[in-house]
Structure formats: structure tokens, C-alpha cells
Write a structure and sequence with these properties.
The chain is an all-alpha fold. It contains 15 helices and two strands. A two-stranded antiparallel sheet has the order 1-2. The chain is globular and about 55 Å long.
Length: 345
């Protein structure tokens, strides 16, 4: 067993009542618990779709469901990266600003003659570098990432607005394959959804089966034990926040392809929705664990609620109220289930 794996085990034992030693099969209960948590949020998503679809069968139309799923893609991608930050007790509030800035950078490059597909790596690199910047400021100034990313949220959005002169960036070559393919459908399914599925599979493996994922969980479970075990906390923080920026940049690239313009005002409030999606999906602010699949399910729950309100003819002014209510109910239910589980043990 490596030092990282021992740190994960030590940290998780420290979080459990009595800190009892577990045997070689200890990974199985953790795996079953992860599956149970993800299954719960997926069941909630299914029930929510059924509750709306029974009185309004049109909601269950395949085109409407695909549109609703597509509407959740951008928040879902942000949430996929956010899971790693939250799992190690970091918070990235800058994703809304990162999203807007990457969108503008990509639109400017394409408008000025860069082939759209060649602009994509630049967009992704920009997002990753912004995440690294967040981590470096957090580490060097010894400040909470919550405070740092709250500042960089406005900083990055301000840079995006300045680069775009406060206006949409248009006159892009919309007949290019980047816009027709990445902004369209592939096999009858929005291209963005295929990208999301790929990201979910890859990052689920990264979180649950790689040394980096084990370090993230170890640091979130017990930072002192992780550091004592020799885990590179600062380097892992940089990697986690860079990943958060990278998935946000991926969302920006897909949004640019879909909307066909660079709007520096897009992404407002996305950071809170991404965090809410993670929490609904079973990733606690206390760190130590996370679920990429659960985060995406949480984002889709928010999208289903927003779409369902249209069918129920609820005024748009009540959308935020309903979304906030869903978040509170989901978090309260999650807390109650976990307390019940601890009492049974």
C-alpha cells in the first residue's frame, strides 16, 4: 500500500465514529456507499421527470428531454471540475468569470482569423491557467480559496468585458465545421452531451482510481494527516483548481460553438449553480469525497426544475425561488439520510 493510500485510510478512519481499523475489504463498503449516494440522486431525478411528465406528457418528448439535458451541459461541466475542489475543501467561485473570459478569448481569436478548431486548445489552456492562478494566490498568500476566487470571479469577468468592449463578439465564420458540428447534433444527440459523457467517464476514473484522486480525497478527509503522510498538498491544490478551470473552459468552448458569438455577460450565477449541483449530487462542503456522476445529476435536476416551471406556467420571476427551494430540500434530505446512516452504524 502506498503512502497516499495509507493517508486515505487514516483520514477516513479519523472521520468515522471510534476510528476503528478496517480490513482489506474496506474498499468495498466505500464503493457501495458511493453507488448508493449516486443512485439516490438519480432516483430523485427520475421521479422529478415523472412528476412533471405525468400531467404534461409533452415534457417527456425526446426532443424536449434532449434540450433540457443540453441546457444543463455547461453547469454540469463546471460541476465536474468543482467536485475535485470541494472534495479537498476548496471552493472555486471564479468559474462564472472564467467561463465568460474563455468565451471572449475564443471569440476574439476566431474573429481575428484563427481557425476555430485551433482556437479550442487556447481556450482550454486559458481556463487551466486561470485555475492555476487561483491556486497560486491561495497558496502564496495563505488565503482561503473562497476569498481568492470571489475576487478573481469579478477580476476575470472584468477582463472579459474589457476585451469585448462590453459587447457581443459576432461576425464569426458560422459555416465552419466547429460551429456546425460542435454546436449541432451528432447521431441525433447534441454534440455537447457526447463531450459531457466523455468528461464524466474520464473524471470518475480519475477521482476514484488514480493517485491524484486519492490525494484529493485524503486532503479533504483530514488535511493534517495527509500533510503528515507526505502528500504534496500545495501541488494537489494547484492541480485540482487547474482542473476546475479546464472543465469550465470546455463549457465555454461548447457554448461558443452553440451560440455562435462571444457574450461577456454569460455565466452570471453559474458558480453558485455548479456548487449547488455538486452538493445535491452528494459532494459535501466538508470534503473527503465526491461524485462526478452525482454532480451531473444534480445539474440536470436544476435544469429539469427550470424546464418544468415553464410547463406549469410559473412566472419566470419565481424560477430562482423554486431553484433555491430544491437546493434546500436536497441538502436537508442528504443531511438527514447521513445522520440516519450514522445512527444505524
Amino acid at each position: 500500500m502506498t503512502e497516499t493510500e495509507r493517508a486515505v485510510d487514516d483520514a477516513e478512519r479519523a472521520r468515522e465514529p471510534g476510528g476503528e481499523k478496517r480490513g482489506p475489504a474496506s474498499h468495498w463498503p466505500r464503493s457501495r456507499r458511493l453507488i448508493r449516494d449516486e443512485l439516490g440522486v438519480l432516483v430523485v431525478l427520475g421521479l422529478l421527470i415523472a412528476v412533471i411528465g405525468i400531467p404534461y406528457p409533452d415534457f417527456l418528448d425526446s426532443d424536449n428531454l434532449l434540450t433540457t439535458a443540453h441546457n444543463s451541459v455547461y453547469i454540469s461541466l463546471m460541476a465536474c471540475g468543482m467536485v475535485f475542489a470541494l472534495a479537498m475543501r476548496e471552493v472555486d467561485l471564479s468559474v462564472g468569470g472564467t467561463y465568460a473570459m474563455c468565451l471572449v478569448v475564443g471569440a476574439l481569436l476566431i474573429r481575428d482569423g484563427t481557425p476555430p478548431w485551433l482556437a479550442v486548445p487556447v481556450i482550454l489552456l486559458t481556463g487551466a491557467l486561470l485555475g492555476v492562478f487561483n491556486a497560486l494566490v491561495t497558496t502564496l498568500l495563505a488565503l482561503p480559496s473562497f476569498i481568492v476566487t470571489l475576487g478573481t470571479l469579478m477580476l476575470f469577468r472584468g477582463v472579459g468585458l474589457a476585451l469585448a468592449d462590453g459587447r457581443q463578439i459576432t461576425d464569426l465564420p458560422l459555416d465552419d465545421s466547429f460551429f456546425t458540428l460542435a454546436g449541432g447534433d451528432a447521431g441525433g444527440v447534441p454534440f455537447a452531451l457526447w463531450v459531457l459523457v466523455t468528461v464524466v467517464v474520464v473524471l470518475t476514473v480519475v477521482l476514484t482510481r488514480t493517485r491524484f484522486g486519492a490525494r484529493v480525497r485524503a486532503i479533504g478527509s483530514n488535511p493534517d494527516a495527509a500533510e503528515f503522510s507526505g502528500i504534496p498538498v500545495d501541488r494537489t491544490r494547484i492541480q485540482a483548481l487547474a482542473l476546475s478551470g479546464l472543465t469550465t473552459a470546455c463549457a465555454a468552448a461548447l457554448a461558443l460553438a452553440f451560440y455562435g458569438a462571444g457574450d461577456p455577460t454569460l455565466g452570471q450565477g453559474y458558480e453558485l449553480q455548479a456548487i449547488a449541483a455538486c452538493i445535491i449530487g452528494g459532494t459535501p462542503l466538508a470534503g473527503g469525497r465526491g461524485s462526478v456522476v452525482g454532480a451531473v445529476a444534480g445539474a440536470m435536476i436544476l435544469a429539469v426544475v427550470a424546464s418544468g416551471l415553464v410547463f406549469f406556467e410559473v412566472p419566470i420571476n419565481w424560477t430562482s425561488f423554486a431553484t433555491g427551494g430544491v437546493i434546500l430540500v436536497a441538502v436537508a434530505a442528504d443531511s438527514a439520510l447521513r445522520r440516519s446512516g450514522r445512527r444505524r452504524r
